[in-house]
Write a structure and sequence with these properties.
This protein is of the alpha+beta class and 146 residues long. It contains seven helices and four strands. The radius of gyration is 19 Å and the shape is elongated.
């Protein structure tokens, strides 16, 4: 039972941690992000299992984490408030070529990332060519040209 409780606590801790880290954390994984995720996994693994290093403990922790994922999927499908907190909503960060600075800052998105996506997805070179730039809940940036 201790392993299950620890796994639930680690699940909630990581959920809050990744939510606070922002949407772009998981959108495009860089080498730095991959190393960071591996370190987080390495640090949280023993915390879940405590002194139990058996296969049974590892299986219980894994089943609990997967179960928490299934549970949260079901709960977010039923609760719009929880869904908004866990997955967030798309956020317009550029409208008619104008950067909405407070949204850009709040979402921790860099203008270089927006322009890179504008060039890659639409072949746009300037800000005034963008009708909308939307930070999707997945962390991707959608560009709608004028």
């Amino acid at each position: 039972m201790d392993v299950i409780l620890r796994a639930v606590l680690v699940y909630f801790f990581l959920l809050v941690l990744f939510r606070l880290a922002g949407r772009t954390t998981l959108a495009q994984i860089t080498s730095f992000d991959l190393v960071w995720l591996l370190v987080v996994a390495e640090v949280t693994g023993p915390a879940m299992l405590g002194d139990d290093i058996s296969l049974t403990g590892a299986f219980l922790a894994s089943i609990t984490l997967i179960g928490m994922g299934v549970l949260f999927t079901a709960l977010t499908n039923r609760s719009e408030v929880l869904d908004r907190w866990v997955d967030d909503r798309p956020l317009v960060i550029i409208e008619d070529g104008w950067v909405i600075g407070d949204r850009l800052k709040k979402s921790r998105v860099d203008m270089d990332d927006v322009m890179e996506q504008a060039r890659a997805a639409q072949g746009l070179e300037r800000l005034d060519q963008i009708k909308y730039a939307v930070l999707e809940s997945s962390g991707d940036i959608s560009i709608i040209p004028k």
